[in-house]
Amino acid sequence: MSEKTVATNRKASFEYFLLERYEAGIVLQGSEIKAARAGQMSLSEAFVRVEPDGAWLIDAYIAPYDPASRFNHDPRRPRRLLLHKREILELWNKARQKGMTIIPTRAYLKNGRLKVEIALARGKRVHDKREAIAERDRRREEEREFRIR
Q: 149: helix, coil or strand?
C-alpha cells in the first residue's frame, strides 16, 4: 500500500486537540486530481461541514491546473467527502456538541486515489497552546543536550 502525502494542515495540532481521525475519499474533477498529484493543494483554512445527507470539504485550495486552460475548476469550491453513512451520522452527532469541529489534517494519495484524513477536534485555549510551546522547547533542549553528550 503506497501513500504519498500531498498536503498537511500543520497548524491543526497546535490549534486543536485532535480526538478521533477518519479517512475519507473525495470527489474531484479531472483538473483537480492532476493539480493535487502535483502537490498544489492547501488545507490550512479548510474545514468539514457535516449534514445528514453527506460531508463536504469547505475552503480547501487546489490550485488551477495550467494545461487544463478553459476546462479548469474553481480553486475553493466545496467538495463532497466519501464516508460510510454510519460515519456521517456519528460525525453529525459529535460535531453538534459545544466546542467540537471537524478539520482536515492531511491529504494523501493511496493506491492512486486522493484521500483526506479528517479529525474530530476541540479548540485549544491560550494556556493550552502555551503548554504545548513549553513542551516543544523542553524536548528541543533535551535533544540538544543529548547531541552534545
A: coil
